[in-house]
Specification:
62% helix, globular, alpha+beta, 4-stranded mixed β-sheet, 537 residues, 5-stranded antiparallel β-sheet
Length: 537
Amino acid sequence: MTSNSKLKRMSKVLSMAFVIFIQIYWYKISKKSEADWEKLWAKIGKRFRETAFELEGLLIKIGQLLSIRSDILPNGFIHQIQDLTDQVPPSEWKEIEALIEGEWNGPLEQHLQTIEKKAVASASIGEVYKGVLNDGEGVAIKVLRPNIESIIQTDFRTLKIIIWFANHFAPIPKRFINLKLLYEELKHVIEQELDFTREKDNLLFFQERFKKQEFVEIPKVYADISTSKVLVMEWMEGIRLTDDKGLTEAGISPKELSQKLIQLFLPQWLEPGKFHADPHSGNVLVSNEGKVILLDFGMVGEMTKKDAAYFQELIESVLSKNYAKGVECLTDLGFLLPEADPKTIEKLLAELMSFQTSQLKEMDLMQVKLELNDMIQALPIQVPTKFVFLGRSFVTMEGMVRRLVPADEFNEILRPVFMEWLSEQGNNKWSFVWYWLQSHPLFKTIHSFTEFLKLPEKLEDLKEKEQRRQFQFTIYENNKTKFFSLSLLGLIGLGGGLYTSHQLILQMSIGLTIVSSIGYFIFSVKVKKWMKYMHGK
């Protein structure tokens, strides 16, 4: 990218961000209703979506990653970006040819008989072309988009400026969102996708992991001609899981296919190691012989042995009502931000588990859900990206299985697969979890019914306490906003004084700017300090 195009790209993204900040300030000062805020976030999401399609590159990928962060971002924003498709126009063939030849240090003919010059798929980071090797094998050649590193480097610089400004000046309802942590996670995930060597290693890992599973097919990778910018894999075709007609014509039993999918993904979710984080219908196919084909290993999460152990302990501690241990596990897993108060989280876990779900018909479920969401979002909890990926992988695959078989057959299919996995693992902790669930098929009888009926009262009490804590915080936040507005007024007056050379306006503007800046600094410190401690008050 030229310096001029970089500046143009940065200016478009920054102007979008600052217009959004101004809108948020105006809504904050005007004290708009919740419905108005929801509409604003929908407008912001729509503007982001349009800018992402216009500039492509990193913005589409960021949008896709943000669309799964409903735990920290407003629903109106998420709704607008949740179906962002990573389909962008392919690059010029000459650029792609030059890149491949540069990586191979020679002409394409030294390895390929033929290659189709039209991309089979084209995304924001890579493009896929179909070719045939000199030995006659069909291959998929994934190529990093030309100049994408430069574009992403520019976008990361821009994003860093926006996050710095948002942290220090913007009145975004962050609650306890750690924007810096979110930025680092986005950066880490996208940088991994930029290096095809990692995807090659992921392919080799999954081939080794599932080599004994005869019903699984994973593309062979040609490591000798693969580089960090070019990945050569076996060409594989199959039927999409959403293609009901194709599955029927191939004589594939939906029930048997569902069992295979659970057998394939259950170990990925529960065992230490890597798991496929993007198993949508384009990446999980089925062959005419009924084998599951797993594609695209660019987005892969990983559970360490420690993570898996803590995760098991978390579930066990919650089910056995050992909430202090549960909070320890949440901390070890990285769910709690540094300022979190363990006692507060422990009380929350106790509240969440102090009801019988078999009696849920007795209360307004939607109201309870809204109350719980408000409490959770007001706490210093931020789900690590690897667990967001794990949840996404589970929800996506569960949706596919439920599409294949009726809802009442889902547990029927899950049970034998899970029990077989348990017998192979010899894992007592997961056995405990499973038998607890078996003895509580509807998650019934955790506490007495009278305690369950007290839940709305407890929620109301917690809400009242939260409102009292928020009162002083609101005073600080409002004063901070007023001083910021005065600072802007002073700067505008300063500009007007310089332009008209009017000394009185100039002097008054300088005085106003200095005083309001000092006031803004004082209340910024108070807001920061209050945010750090208010959850423990």
